[in-house]
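Q: I'm writing up a methods section and want to include an example of the input and output format. Could you take the sequence below and give the corresponding predicted structure tokens, formatted cleanly so I can copy it straight into the document?
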Amino acid sequence: MQKQVDKSHYEFGKYVHKRRWASMWHQLDEVIKLNPERVLEVGPGPGLFKATAGVMGVHVEALDLDPELEPDHVAPADAMPFEDDAFDVVCAFQMLEHVPYEKSLAIFAEMARVARKGVVISLPDAATRWPMALHIPRVGLKWVSIPKPRIRAREHQFDGEHHWEINKAGHPLAKVQEDFSNAAPVRLTRTYRVNENPYGNTDLFRRGSRPPGGFGIMAPGFLPEVMADVPAQLFRSRVFRQA
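A: Here is the clean output for your methods example:
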């Protein structure tokens, strides 16, 4: 793995925009729900997640190849220098698309190996959605997310940073979820897009085998849970839980 961008890439106002703050709120919310004592973030960028989590009393350590970002651990993500189950939760936000697809699966497997409870990731989703907010008296703010019609998935062109994206040609969402779930002993328990930042998908994986009767959001009883508070995210977010 090689360094792709300089530290200047993370300048406030250019990288740290309002939509990214909205995504980070949901990412932190998913991590806190797992009641972790020790969290590892892979690919910390400017360190915003770690700093914000620390204010909320969540201990986060960062791992990255680039010493300029001052991570707690300078090491490759596909060969982490940790024992099995060394952390309660391991997360990576908008990071796995920066390596070739097969490498991202290997990194995810390594994340699951050192995570005792679960893995939270977010990835860019190229399927355009148009989010709209409506304030209803006595009900509050409600979101509607409308998918943009398309005939076929676009081919992905490497832009110097992203090697692949969800819902580009060859990487439909269902296949990506299936591949990640097969890469490690985890099960996908929650997946959604954040309304304020819908170019992505947040996923939560827990340790354990896939629940009977379905995969991902199609498992019985899961879809109503997701639709109850569908947040919208530019990046697909996933939460994987361990056995």
